[in-house]
Queue: 4 jobs
Job 1
Amino acid sequence: MGWDIWLLALRWHLATGDAVAGDIISWTESAAGHTFVTNSSRRWADASILAGTPEAQARAAESRITSFYANH
């Protein structure tokens, strides 16, 4: 999940030339950032389930990850 955010930050930096460390942290706290985090976390959980992780375990991890990244 963290990789997803920092790859997005790299894309942002390359497109604008702006430093993004503070901006990306603020962005993850916005509605758009929360949606990105929620969707990305769900996709990682889906992939984990396809790889054999029990669904309850993958969804629990999804919830923890979403909560961590969407609230920091």
Note: DSSP finds four helices and no strands in the chain.
Job 2
Amino acid sequence: MDTFSLMKESVLHSKNEDPAPTEFKAQLVAVARAGRSIESLAREYVPCPPTIHDWVQQAGAIDCERDALLTKCRAGQAAPVTP
């Protein structure tokens, strides 16, 4: 069984908690961005379409924030963030 299938199983078994591990969310976002419809992902992997849509939107906002920070760092307007 591949990792994606294992994550699908974990979502099916824990509906009262935050059932979707970060990796699972990231994989669904990547598949949606690659062109698969949110509705088809929802049918196959349980989270409802609005949830998957929110994950895609959140990922986009994080990407924009990261890009803006990188642009500022390159321009010398912000100190680089170290992990």
Note: The CA atoms of residues 55 and 78 lie 28 Å apart.
Job 3
Amino acid sequence: MYKGYRGAQNPLPYVHEPPKHQETPAGLTSQLLVATGTANLRKGPSTRAEIAFKVKAEDTLEVLGETTDWYHARIADGNFFIHKSLARPL
């Protein structure tokens, strides 16, 4: 934080920030179709994140963005994450 006699430096460059989800790219459709029998919607992009609830096959979700392996999606009850292997773009 302190270098030589110049005083304190801005600590912001040293703070670690978790990766943020990306906004929906222009080429990505704005809806997803659940492709499996049932799928867990989670509160975070991890299998360790709490399961908010389950959706059934053929349910549709609105895409808000995506990470490497997860879609950030919205349904009537809120915003959640679903693994990309469990849903496909419409």
Note: DSSP finds no helices and eight strands in the chain.
Job 4
Amino acid sequence: MEKLKPGDIALLLHNNLDELSASGLIHAGVKAVVNCGVTMNGHYPAEGPRMLIHAGIPIYQGDQDLFVTLAKQEAEQAVQGKQGVEIRICEGVLHCGEHTAKVSLFTERDWHELYMEGQAKLPDTLNAFITNTLVHASNESVQWLEPMSLPALRSLSGRYALIVVRGSGYKEDLSALQAFINEYEPALIGVDGGADALLEAGYMPDLIVGDMDSVSDGALCCGCELVVHAYPDGRAPGLKRVHELGLPVQIIPAHGTSEDVALLTAYELGAERIIAVGSHTSMIDFLEKGRKGMASTLLVRMKIGSKLIDAKGFALLYTARSHKRRSEVAKAWLRTLASAGLAAGMLIAVAACWSPLYAQAPSHHRESEQHAPVSAPATGHTHSTDQKEIWHVTYRIRHHSGVE
């Protein structure tokens, strides 16, 4: 997502657009999305497409041939030192140079129909998910009975460990935990891109665990310990990348997800408590990752449950409580002023002071009653007289699939 600029159009090859990807695209400020995968197949109720539509970001449905063509042109531009390619979408046809392709707009009605179809299929989907989970849990249980063999890593004995995964709501939950992090100074563990999440929040990771497919070079080079999660047979595709950066690294071969390995690593290193941020815990979480079961996650959480604190959704509770306390204090002040005969004159001032918008606004905005004109951000695209638009394709998401 870091390659995207406001006003760009994102080229994806992504089946069942998930909430995390949608959130990233919204945060990046993209103008539109061309998805050459299946945006939503109706197998389960996905929310990602709805999030984009409600954010005013149109989704155009293409095919894999279009993805290959545009990706090739993008690569050719990159060789010439240019970023992105110009495309135009008009009346259901995408134009890129001399190439044209039909695209269809994915509407909110499309989303609603597929969402209801997914809801109707939930019992069967859940049954298949449970069956997959239990079968694989039975096959893999032996691995988790004994202590996991760990490489030489710094002990976490007596310390809290905070593990960050880039899952749904991770930014908000990590922000809400700021006071806890400042007070307890836990060991900070990033799971792949979770390391970048820590750095973006102003924290330095102590350890990065993962297959290294979604973490930035900057995070890998931050000076922390690195552990590559390998397949049980020892194959570790991510190891090559770390070696090319000339960094020292350890390897842990194991079944399951890198998130599972990170949790178990903190447990085996003696962490007193393990706080998980952005973790995957529900069927929808795993289906969005292309996984048809959660056997390893079930087993790991059964093993470390006495030490595990899941902070998923903590920001929702914390924000609600904070807002309630502000409201209660505001009401108390109003009652005090009313009893002194001052409420009539001070009502607006007090209400404004305790407004969440007032609290969040920069001081220079609050001090002025003048409204600056709203200007559109620089987007890198132009408008012609017939309102046709030229956009830049600057980023693509690979389709991930996995089966436990």
Note: The chain has 16 helices and 15 strands.
